[in-house]
Amino acid sequence: MNTEKLLGLYPNAQKKNAPSPDEHILSLIVEDYFLWIDKNSLSAQEENLLKALFQTTYSLENHPWFHYLFEEQAYVSEESCRIIQLHLEKRAEFLQKEWQETIAELFPEALDFFLYTETDGLIIERKHPNYLNTADLKGIFLSLDVDFDLTTQAFVGSFHTSGQNLTAMFDEERKIFLNKQTQIQVSDQTTSIQELALYYYTKELVTSSQLTNEYQEIIRGFKMEEIIIELWKNFGNISSAAKQLFMHRNTLQYRIEKFDEQTGFNLKKADDLLFCYLLLLHT
Questions:
Q1: Which residue of 98, 137, 231, 240 has the lowest C-beta tally within 10 Å?
Q2: For the PucR C-terminal helix-turn-helix domain, which residue ranges apply (predicted)?
Q3: 173 in any annotated domain
């Protein structure tokens, strides 16, 4: 059930970008918003049903970054930092206390770390010389998943300076992460904004265009999907792409030239390759 359907059922509910600090408000995560519903308007059965269907949020007293990011309260930090968003899929008996202690040890430069729902958390990490890149973080979270018998989706935000509007930056990064969870099919559980930005920021434009829909059909008609993706992954290098496709280089060269001849898309040119790859992101 999406936000608009819930608003139809509960017309006095409010769609917000942050959870409610009021204990009399039921704060639900629906799509990429928080939905506030006055508990006085709900029966006990309705409240329990909504809690079972949707994630509810905590209000965290001892975490200043929670109040800063979600409740727009003042928090002054002179350091550049990034926000790593986590979503947990727990199995069996989750050793939450031990997991949180391990996270704290692995991120000693964290300015704050907390779960704001049963399954969603944030690590706010200051920029330091030995910070881990996304590839390193992938390995760490995979190891933790094995040790604690869970699956972690992580989204590594960019470093932002203290002068930037960090709450607005976080709100946008959070929506990208939620979009990834529900709509973007990627093999890696740990991703960064750089890996998802191209899809997220072009989705509406590409999916609403009749012209791009026609181009997508052309690519599918020539069965060029795999070739375009491997060329993109290999920076346009035909020899490297041919190896990944288990195809002779000359065969791949012929397919590329034939595609160019029939469609006008020259996959040896960076602009053409980028455009075709972009079309495949939204098929």
A1: 98
A2: 233-279
A3: yes
Query: Which of 133, 159, 193 is the last residue in one of the domains?
Result: 193
Instruction: Decide if 215 contacts 259 (C-beta within 8 A).
Output: no
Q: What is the token pair recorded at 12? A: 């006095």
10-residue averages of pLDDT along the chain (283 residues): 74 77 77 80 83 72 82 74 91 86 93 88 92 92 92 91 79 84 66 85 83 91 93 94 94 95 93 92 79
| Residue range of the domain that includes 144 | 64-193
- The residue written with tokens 């929670």 in the block is 66
Any long-range contacts for 171-177 (C-beta under 8 Å, 24+ apart)?
Answer: 171/17, 173/83, 173/85, 174/32, 174/85, 175/32, 176/200, 177/85, 177/87
Residue 27 vs residues 17, 20, 66, 117, 179: alpha-carbon distances, Å: 11, 6, 15, 10, 20
Picking from 234, 46, 202, 107, the residue whose alpha carbon sits closest to that of residue 38 is 46
Residue 102 backbone phi and psi in degrees, to 5: -65, -45
Q: Does some domain include residue 242?
A: yes
Task: Give me the number of domains the chain comprises.
Answer: 3
Spatial contact of 34 and 17, defined as CB atoms under 8 Å apart:
yes
Predicted confidence at residue 269, as pLDDT, reads 94
Residue 34, phi then psi, degrees to nearest 5: -105, 130
